[in-house]
Each structure stands twice: as structure tokens, then as C-alpha cells.
Amino acid sequence: MSQALSSIPQLTRAGLTSPEQSEELERVAEEFRVLISPAMQNALQTADDGVGRQFVPTVDELIIHEGDLADPIGDHAHEPVPGLTHRYPDRAILHLTQTCAVYCRFCFRRESVGDSGTLPMEAIERICDYLRKTPAIREIILTGGDPLVLSPRRLGLVLEKLRAVGTLDLLRIHSRVPVVAPERITPDLLEVLKGEIPVWIVVHTNHAQELTPEARAALARLADAGFPLLSQSVLLRGVNDTPEALEDLFRALLRLRVKPYYLHHCDLARGAGHFRTTLEEGMALMAALRGRISGTALPSYILDIPGGFGKVPINPQYFTKTPDGWSVTDPRGGKHHYSDPLR
Length: 343
Hints:
The chain contains 11 helices and 12 strands. The chain is of the alpha/beta class. Helix 6 (about 150-165) runs parallel beside helix 8.
């Protein structure tokens, strides 16, 4: 396969959606963009397997639950300059592009991905000015969209400007590309990632079936070039919400020299409620994994508190059961209500 699938008719011709559901699925596609890369078309076997459920739209996305949010983690609540989210004292998120190589059906930025292209260099300059005036920021997390969809030349220019700020210790790139578009991990890209200020790569992957031979080779190229590799995954009902599925994923990542870093509780993105587990289900999965795999393979299970109040580990230190849900304590000591999905 050489062409990405980006429309309901294309998905229907590929046998991934039913003609009888085309009208409803067109409504889904109008709300939330569709894009499945060639690599992920090769990885999925059916629309309902661990890969297909992540990328093939369903009519469940038309169900909007009370509490669903357009900006579930509060990106725009902490935006001192356009393109930069500064939520924590020592690090900030740079939204380099709104484009991805695939569009995940559960994405917490699903309402903005694809809206616009790459952040212009003028905006990068303003961000660098802000960083020079805010030396407490020591780490920049490049995200989007997906930074690795950019050309090596463009990405290299951005990294060069960030490294020239003079106050940063680390650049972190969060990306799905090594798995969903592994052909983009080229010698030219590896070269521009190198520099005095190190780049760490956080790979987003949710199911071992995504780790095709091509993805494994791309991760090996990154590891062999000396880049530290971490992973982040999302706990997704019907995709990886069993001890066996998570164990397979985390063991596979370790073999590929990728340290499992975060397991995110699924965010309150609009139309993604069918993917969400309860917090107790997630905690039970983590407890089961502790008896099956080593600490090296275990990520931190976290919730990004809705509204932009930060990430916290899902454990009794931060979470208290209440009659109507949970009380969550944020990193600054604030208290917030959180409700599990209704079943």
C-alpha cells in the first residue's frame, strides 16, 4: 500500500467500513478527520482489532457524553505566546504543527489536528524570546500534531533556534512517526536531531500489533544513533485494556530499547467516551502487571487532570473515592472532581 486513506469512500473500498453506515460515518468525518497511513493499513487485520479500532472511525464517535471537552487537558489555558503551553515551572510544550501521519480516534487534540500547517518561523522567534525571558524553563517538549512529519530541514531550523536560546538542558520530541510512518526515520532526520543539547524521543504506541518489522527497524535506527527512547501509551477500552495486551506491548518495547514511560488514562475528548475505562479498572490492570513484569517494563499510570491542572500518578496519594466519582489532588494541592464513564 502506498496511499493513505483519508475519506469514508476510501475506507469502504478497502473493506474497513460498511456501505450501510456511510452516511453516519460521513458525519463523523466532518467532526473528526480521518487518516490512516500505509504502514498502519498493513498492520491492521480487521477494523475491530487492536490497530483498527485506533484509526477506523465508528458511529460511536457521534455520542457526546456530558463532561466531554474540546480542550481536555487545557492547552490554551496556559499559552503565554501562540504555540507554547507553559503549565509546569521547568518545562513547556511547543505545538510545532497540527499535522499528523495518522489521526487517532481517541486523540485529545482531535478537534484541532489538521486545522493549520506548521508554526511559522516568526512564531518560533517569539517563543524563543519568551524562553530567554523565562530561564526557569529547562526543557522543551515538541509536539503537535507530530513534529516528525516536518521535513528534516524545517525541523533542523527549529532545533537550531531552540538550542541557541542558551538556557535549555533537554529537547523532547513526542511522536507516532517511528511506528506509523517508519520510512520517515531517515539518515537526514537522524543528523538534524543530533546536537549539543540532547534530543529524547517519546514514541506513542498502544498495541504490540503496531510494531511491524518496519517500525522495529525505525526504532533500531534511532537507538543505534544514540537517542534515548521512551514510550507513552493510552489505556483504551477494546484495544489494550487487558493485562495480556499491555504486557505484550511493554515487553516488545523493552526488546526494542524503548523504556515504557507513561500509560495515560484516556482523556475526556469529545466523541471518545467508548474508549474510556474507569480509574478502578486501570488501577487493577497496573496491579496485575506488577505481578507479571519487571519494574523496568512498567510505565507510570497517569491522569492529565481536565482543565489544564497537570498530570498526576493514579494512586491513593492523589485520588480519593467520593460518592459521585473521585477527588483528584493536582501538583499544587488543588482539588478537582473527576467522574468515571457510565456503564
